[in-house]
Amino acid sequence: MEIPIIYQDEYLLVVDKPVDLPVHKNDFMPHDAPYLTKLIGDETGQWIYNVHRLDSKTSGLIILARSSEVAHHLTLQFERKEVDKEYLTIVLGEVPDKGFFDGKVVVKKKSKFKKDALTRFQRERLVQTNISYKEHTNVCLSLVRVMPDTGRWHQIRQHFAKNRHDIVGDSHHGDFTLNKLIKAEWGFSRLMLHASKLAFTHPVSGEKLSFEAKFPDEFERLLEAVQA
Questions:
Q1: What Cα–Cα distance (Å) separates residue 155 from each residue in 32, 50, 66?
Q2: Using CA atoms, how far apart are residues 96 and 151, in angstroms rounded to an integer?
């Protein structure tokens, strides 16, 4: 599996994680299943530490550390909200030009415990489609830039679903009928959520680093395919 390395030095790496690749090993995976830290570790010949979370179904930028000390310093930046993060997503309906969602979200799968969360967004593009189902006729899809202030479990997915702007391809929180129609008609099944930008301070040099990932081909192809 090819994993684009956007930046690397002797302390850390920034990579563009492919969709459907877990960041680290978990108890639900087959023992020989691939995961990001192992693949990069095999490529670099050293132990690799993950710094922050990115769902396996979400593609895009993620920081990896070459030592536990560097990982610790980077993790503190996330905890202090010193890291700027942006995502791109394609969602159901006409999202406002800009705004935010601040409802509580559950903290993990199968949990009822909720915490405060804040997700800012800005609509980048609106597409009128020929998709009609149930009470929906010629639905719109919005390409949205998302800036989460907090980093809760599935926060972006939960917030958009709760506000009836389900993320296309979200099999956990989303609109299952819409997902099924898009897969059957055009073959798209991935979660349309991509970590597109990251900015943070290098834990050793103190330099401010900023990175932007390539716009996913699937996003552009979907938006072009569904237009009425």
A1: 29, 19, 28
A2: 22
Q: Which one from 55, 166, 170, 175 is the annotated catalytic residue? A: 55
Name the one residue in this structure whose structure tokens are 């998709």: 131
Cα atoms found within 13 Å of the Cα of residue 49, Cβ hemisphere only: 14
In terms of DSSP H, where are the helices of the chain? Answer: 36-44, 68-79, 155-162, 176-186, 217-226
- Going residue by residue through the chain (228 aa), what tens digit of pLDDT does each one get? 789 999 999 999 999 999 999 998 876 677 778 899 999 999 999 999 999 989 999 999 999 999 999 999 999 999 999 999 999 999 999 999 999 999 999 988 878 889 999 999 999 999 999 999 988 899 999 999 999 998 888 999 999 999 999 999 999 999 999 999 999 999 999 999 999 999 999 999 999 999 999 999 999 999 999 986
**Rounded to an integer, what distance in angstroms lies between the CA atom of residue 161 and that of residue 168?**
10
Strand, coil or helix: 182: helix
Number of residues that make up the chain: 228
Angstrom CA distances, 88 to 3, 60, 183, 194, stand at 19, 10, 20, 5
Cβ-contact 33, 21 below 8 angstroms:
no
Residue 55 catalytic? yes
* 201 close to 151: Cβ distance less than 8 angstroms: no
Closest CA to 15 of 28, 6, 26: 6
* CA gap 120, 68 in Å, rounded: 32
